[in-house]
Amino acid sequence: MVVVSKMGRPIIGKPKTIDVKVRLDKDTHEKVLEYSEKHKITKSETIRRGIDLLISKK
After folding, report:
1. Separation CA 46–CA 34 (nearest Å)
2. How far is CA 41 from CA 4, 6, 9, 57, in A?
3. 48, 39 contact by CB (below 8 A)
4. Please, what sign has the CA dihedral across residues 27, 28, 30, 34?
5. Which residue has the higher pLDDT, 1 or 52?
6. C-beta separation of 36 from 46 below 8 A
7. CA-CA distance, 24 to 12, in Å (whole number)?
8. pLDDT of residue 48 exceeding 70
């Protein structure tokens, strides 16, 4: 029996296994998109960075 690993994108950093849905107003969504585009990162990464900033400011 041959075991073949699953094809797809390689995991970078910690695996993202939790799915969270949020609702944003139009202005906030546009700010997220602008930041994401400016820093060439995904919307998800932008939101993760925002959460990390809030948590680190204890």
Report:
1. 10
2. 31, 25, 16, 23
3. no
4. positive
5. 52
6. yes
7. 27
8. yes
Query: Which pLDDT tens digit goes with each residue over 3-12?
Result: 666 677 777 7
pLDDT in tens, 11-42: 778 888 899 999 999 999 999 999 999 999 99
HEC string for the chain: CCCCCCCCCCCCCCCCCCCCCCCCCHHHHHHHHHHHHHHCCCHHHHHHHHHHHHHHCC
With a CB cutoff of 8 Å and minimum separation 6, the contacts of 49 are 41
